[in-house]
C-alpha cells in the first residue's frame, strides 16, 4: 500500500478573545492533513503552538520534508521514527487512524483496542479577564460540572472567589500556564482548596519543576507544558500527581496511548487536554477519555463555528453525534474529502 498526503492551513475565528497568561488570540490557526491510498481518504487536524517553537509555516515545512518517505509508511507506529513528537506528526497520525478505519471497516476504538467513550464531562474554559468579567463568564455556564480557569499572577484569589460565587457547585481547574513561582503557589493553596479548586495545571515554568519536590499540596498538581511523551513521565511523577496529555504534544494518538499507560503505572491521574481547534482536532483525543479523571476538550466551544458533524455539548456533557466526522468505518465524508483532495495542489 502506497500512501500520499496533502496538508494545508485553516483558520477558525473564535467566539470571543481567548486570553491566557502568555498572551491572547482571536482565531485558531490549524493544520489539516488528508491521507489517501488512492481510493479511500482519512483526515486529521493539529494546532501548531508557539510555546514549542512551532508555527503554521514550520509545521507545513516539516510535513513537506517527509512527503516522499511517507509513501513507505504502513502503520501509525511508523510515524514515531518519521517525525518527532509535535503537531506535524499529530496531524498525520490522526489522518492515518481515520484512513485505517475506512480501509478495515472498524472504528479507531476497535483498531486501538480502546474502551469506547460513550460520553464524558469536559471542562469549559474561562479566559483571563477582570474578576467581574470572569464571574460573568461563569454565570453563563452556571453549575457546569467542571470549569477550567485561565489565570496569570494577578488577582488570583479575587478571580477565583468571584467564579466560585457564580457557580458554587462546579469543580474548578486552574491553569497558570507556567505563570507562577512556588512561593505564590504556597501562599494561595489553602484558599484555592477552600474555593473548590481540585487541580492546578503547570503552576511554575517547566524548568522549575524540581522546586515542587516535597510540596504537600491540598490540590492536585498537574504537569502540562513539562510533559510531551511517555519518556517524561518517570521524572515528572516526583513532582506532580497528574499529567495533561495533549496529542499536539505527544505527536498523536499512537504515543498518547502509551503516555497514558505509563502515567497510570506511576500512579498519576490523567487529564486529556487540547489546544484551541475544531472537533476534528478533539476526535482522536476523545478516544482515550473513557477512564480518565479529567477531560478538557472544549476547543469546539471556543470557535465561532465548528466543523459539520462535530461533537455535541450539553452543559459540559460531550458526545459524538451520528454521523460523526472522524474515526468510524463507512463512507461518511469520503465524497467531500475526495473533492477537496482534487482541489488541492500536489
Automatic annotation (TrEMBL):
Coiled coil: none annotated. SUPFAM superfamilies: Enolase C-terminal domain-like, Enolase N-terminal domain-like. The keyword Methyltransferase does not apply. Signal peptide: none annotated. Keywords: Isomerase, Magnesium, Metal-binding. Pfam families: MR_MLE_C (PF13378), MR_MLE_N (PF02746). Binds 1 Mg(2+) ion per subunit. It comes from Alteromonas lipolytica. Its cofactor is Mg(2+). Residues 131-222 form the Mandelate racemase/muconate lactonizing enzyme C-terminal domain. Belongs to the mandelate racemase/muconate lactonizing enzyme family. NCBIfam families: racemase_DgcA. It is an enzyme of class 5 (isomerase). This is Dipeptide epimerase. GO terms for biological process: amino acid catabolic process. One of its GO terms (molecular function) is racemase and epimerase activity, acting on amino acids and derivatives. PANTHER family: D-GALACTONATE DEHYDRATASE-RELATED, ENOLASE SUPERFAMILY MEMBER DDB_G0284701. Mg(2+) binds at residues 175, 201, 224. It comes from the Bacteria. The lineage of its organism: Bacteria, Pseudomonadati, Pseudomonadota, Gammaproteobacteria, Alteromonadales.
